[in-house]
Batch of 4 targets.
Target 1
Amino acid sequence: MNEAIRPGQGTSSQAAATPEVSVVVPTFNERDNVSALFRKLEAALAGIAWEVIYVDDNSPDGTWDVVRALARQDSRVRCIRRIGRRGLSGACIEGILASSAPCAAVIDADLQHDETQLPKMLGLLQSGDADLVVGSRYIEGGSADSFDRQRAGFSLLATRVAKRVLRVDVADPMSGFFAIRRDRFEQLAPQLSTQGFKILLDIVATARGTLRIREIPYTFGSRLHGESKLDSMVALDFLGLVLAKLTGDVVTLRFLLFAMVGSLGLVVHLTALAVALDLFHWSFPEAQAFGALVAMTSNFLLNNFLTYRDQRLKGFGILRGLLLFYLVCSVGLFANVGVAFSVYDQEPIWWLAGAAGALMGVVWNYAMSGLFVWRKR
Ligand code: GDD
Ligand code: MN
């Protein structure tokens, strides 16, 4: 091996040694917490070669800037600043994939997790006793006292559903605090969802029992500064993950929402058509065009608000997106009618042909909208 790149050779300070563990910290608006966490990690991981990778989604409060300043003082600190993307799971995945250490741990920035457990978690991975170690609130010795009743109720319900439906055999699959062997994570990474919050549940469900899992108790504390980023949408995210895993990733929540919005669009269309005919006394072609325009517009707005809330278009982007959406839907209509005709040609059953056309239309609109209207950067 080349002398110059032999790991750990000729380095006097621990900061330059190859890390045994990368601690991945997803952040969004956590500028007041990142330095405090770093100092706590420094104390907890004394004697271990470690690094910390903050993954920040371009926080408006400039968290990434604070992390960069930390990184200039200490080479154990790294910063990934993601632009045009949001999501806890995706941030954790990118952080772990940016690591070359044999082990990675994920911990929240707000000091709600107990970083003093990290050496124990790392020890279990290094001894070969486990591939994944979960910091658990729901086993003997752990607790989540800082949760309000509503949050505690939802957390327990989700845990029960996950265990029953996805056969996940972990006491606290919703935990955001865990450590994993990076080689095992790398194998699973291509199948993980970058959306939502439930990365641990996703890892365990995707691994289908092939990971050796250990749980250790910890107490979920109170947030140091700032506020939680998890809102009522976590319920939707959770359902989406369950759905995707149950159908082998064929049906996604996004597609289901898109199709639901589309069905609602039919109702909107018919209502607008009736109004134009009866109230405005327009001719049928005019009224039909009006109905289509109203339905496409309301579909676009609903999709922007719900289906693609994580990639919501704003400002001028809304207008551009709306025009593109009109275009996509117009072509979708041709696809719809074309398929319906050819099915009817083979098998003259009106509802079968109609349904086949509608399905073609929604699949087309969904695929093209994802490509052109709410395109990922
Ligand atoms: N990069 C990035 N992008 N980070 C994010 C995002 C995001 O979109 N959303 C949240 N974070 C970061 C926060 O800055 C914080 O460091 C961490 O992820 C957890 O977010 P919180 O907003 O503090 O979540 P919580 O405390 O309400 O929920 C915690 O407990 C849940 C268990 O019930 C988290 O650990 C969840 O993962 C966990 O499921
Ligand atoms: Mn938190």
Note: Strands lie at 21-27, 50-56, 77-81, 103-106, 132-136, 178-181, 213-217.
Target 2
Amino acid sequence: MTNPARTVPGLAAMARQGEKIAMLTCYDASFAALLDRAGVDVMLVGDSLGMVIGGHASTLPVTQDEMVYHTRCVAAGAHAALVVADMSFGSYQASREQAYGNAARLMAAGAKMIKVEGGAWLAPTVEFLVARGIPVCGHLGLQPQSVHRLGGYKAQGKTDASARALHDDARALTAAGIDLLVLEMVPAALAAELTAEITAPTIGIGAGPACSGQVLVLYDMLGIYPGKPARFVRNFLTGGSDVEGAVAAYVKAVKDGSFPGPEHCV
Ligand code: KIV
């Protein structure tokens, strides 16, 4: 069942009313139309496209031109879900002006919000974009664009010091005006604290059930990404053959709180 058109304030209202937000990555118009029909609230044009479509080992080789192209494709197929687009590695870190120029290209391609990875250091950039009318989604916990500094795709926030740093980062991004916050691979209890503390809705991936919503990489939840799936992934196509049915089952499981279960927590 297709949703009414989702808006940025509408996501905040869903979170306030306790309705879970179902988000999936999406990279093309055909899947965007299918995800819309299945009731997905938010489509993320993730830079994970570099891995699942481009076959790279990380998201670092993805270019801003590629993000613009895929955002245009998804926006052409999505009519109800809110389209969020990732800023590529190197497209926003150098200066607020660099970030604005590249974010504006994604908005012109059809994004309704952009996503950036980073904590308190990024707050002035977030503030700069928000003041100029660009809604921003933050991304804390495991930040895939920092995979080499982190030494791998590992859970974050497991020590007292790193949990405190995550609280500080979330507060700084909130004060800067984020409208959504992705929490990737952080302990469920910490994600619950952050969700209770900040005003923006949180979207978890490997962050437990207390977040305001959930996101998965589309190819992971359909079981078509080669290699061992991460612990937080559930294959919703298992036992069925209908892709739209699998996506609808994901939306239902997020909304009724049956996904993620304890087995999906890091
Ligand atoms: O690029 C992506 O797919 C993401 C999700 C994992 C949240 O950032």
Note: The radius of gyration is 17 Å.
Target 3
Amino acid sequence: MKRTLFIALLFTVVAGFVFADTQVGIVLPTKDEPRWIQDQTRFLDALKSAGFSAKVLFSQGDSAKEKANVEALISEKIKVLIICPQDGTAAAAAADLAHKAGVKVISYDRLIRDTTSVDYYVTFDSFMVGKAWGDYLNSKVPAGSKGNNLYLYAGAASDNNAFIFFEGAWSALQPKIADGTYIVRNSDKAVALKNKAKLTRDEEAQIIGQVTTNWNFNDAKSKAEANLTAAPKEAKGTVYICAPNDGTARAIADAFAADKDVKTYYITGQDAEIASIQYIIDGKQSMTVLKDVRTLVKDAINAAVAYMKGQTPPVTSYYNNGKKDVPAKPTAIVTVTKDNVKKEIIDSGYWPADKFTGLK
Ligand code: BGC
């Protein structure tokens, strides 16, 4: 006993803190979207020099699988759980289990809702993501013009981020919906609420319910096609499309491009996915929002190390999850268009140039 204690103490002195078993569990939502494969790759890269053992598991869009993953990690005696919930509310049960087992819970990119069992939130500034979409579309509208066609799309209602993105977009678009610069063509709820600058979560949910893509490419495509089928010719021509991420943006852009009455479209996105960077170079997607996953991974790892050392990670803001103001450190985002794609994506080392054709 004495000897074990001595060895443990020695190890503590040498390593700074003791590592054993799997120390950090990382749970990501799905392998079916390039975004989360990217997070896995960037995690595995950063973990090489992180100095602790970790394991990455995927939930494949299934909250039950996510909970089973968390249980498996708890039985491996993890100290810290880094988890991006599939469904923000459903994940509360998994977070509670981890907390009961003495595990620190870091919500990664998406916030776990309606539980106090979340210690920290590493995230991007999601409000600014949505605002960047609105600002971009506004910058393309001819000054003083009225009646421009606006199509709104949103992420999954089970993802808290979908609400924050929408809130950011609404903050930029609503004044121009209210003054008639835009006509929202695919949501009568948005039209009914057009004079309200700040929406309640319930009002946001009403609009999101009409325009959700569920973060799914096929849903996005069929919703866009249904919207186009229902739209009269005068709701086409030049269109402004607020699309919630790159995967859904490409699906929606393809649907609009295939409609002979759509002459010009402007469409947003986020994630700087390789396929969307190519779409931007080719003029098929107008913008994306670069959320540098390397920074998010670094912040998550630093927070995990802080907890294992008995310290607290840095806090610059708080996000309410329905039960608690969760301490957080949101990271800034960058708008990427054809004009700055080379500088922000290639020159910054985010993606190598040989992934793309037609780059200037
Ligand atoms: C993430 C986005 C991602 C979307 C769909 C959001 O929570 O912040 O980066 O595109 O989920 O997976």
Note: The longest strand covers residues 325-331.
Target 4
Amino acid sequence: MTDTPAPASESASESATEPVSVPAPVVLPEPTTARPVPGQLTFQAPRRGKPPRHLADFTPAERKEAVESLGHKGYRAKQLSAHYFERLEDDPEQMTDLPKAVRSELVAGLLPTLLTPIVQRVADDGQTMKYAWRLHDGAIVESVLMRYPKRVTICISSQAGCGMNCPFCATGQAGLTRNMSAGEIVEQVVWAARALRRGELAGGGDDDHEAPLRVSNVVFMGMGEALANYKASVGAIRRLTDPAPDGLGMSARGITMSTVGLVPGIDKLTAEGIPVTLALSLHAPDDELRNELVPINTRWSVDEALDAAYRYFEATGRRVSIEYALIRDINDQGWRADLLGEKLNRRGRGWVHVNPIPLNPTPGSKWTASRPGVEQNFVERLRAHGIPTTIRDTRGQDIDGACGQLAASTA
Ligand code: SAH
């Protein structure tokens, strides 16, 4: 069944109350998902073996239970959390405040290896790094780490593949393999934080600063539609934002949740009351074109998606980002900029900004980026409507690490 939204309870991380089974059984990867047919949407992730359970799958209360289920005192959960979230430590040898036997059992039971790095590629003079990870069942996902003058951003994956089938996106063309667990999502950030600590990312022009580099921004713009894997994605956001030692203590403002416009998911996120930034991948202001570019539009129209984004702004006070990949002669006409400006202004002022990005090339796609003059005109037309508009920086194009290019080839 490919056509109904998966209930949140079916997400991959739902293992809170289950007994521990370590090591996890090795599940061989299934044959590659067939290429999706045009317009087809896949909400329900194929069932594969669950990833081993991990500390980062759990709330602090659940961690206590998990530790007790391993036969240890509940307060050990806090100690283990401090090692993992505060010190980024998963080596039992370093956990000297814990008795040796306790350490190895807790690490074996709650800090299993979820990500195995298989490829690491560098671009932009060492300031951009793309990682490909193998998950426990052989599925492959990618993350991209980018250093800027005053921030470090990691672009993370929330699903292996994606079921949203946007024809201009390499991930969408590969289909959905499976949902990722909260632990697998968080581990991408923890790995990046460790890499930064080891000084593995080249300077961003701010080498004079003394403090160790930290991951300041996390964007859910890698593989997958995070709101289609709601429970694990929001669980991951909680782990990232909970203050140490319960979580990584990041600012919610530094986190961006990007979506094709799953309206019920946006509304649910609104109700969570976590002030992350919402990015809506719009790409067209009219239903006729958006039905083709972002097939979810056949379920929730441009107006419905914009209304949900506006409700998000109203509830959180966070300015929403509209993502718009400029595709030559497809969605880059001046009248579409005007229509977009009108639709945004109809809902209010100061609630939104637009982030056009020149389309990144993907294999087999007939489309290409807009000409620079056309791009500039599009931006100016939007600004003339009073809409703050900035061209999105694109990184890692030469390593297929840019937006829409993540397809998990191991080349
Ligand atoms: N599923 C989410 C997040 C993943 S994609 C979403 O769609 O928002 C992150 C962003 O990259 C989205 O705005 C997406 O539309 C955009 N994108 C996809 N393919 C692209 C391409 N070839 N060039 C530029 N941007 C692209």
Note: The pocket of S-adenosyl-L-homocysteine is lined by residues 164, 168-169, 221, 225, 258-260, 281, 323, 325, 357, 359-360, 362, 403-404 (CB under 6 Å).
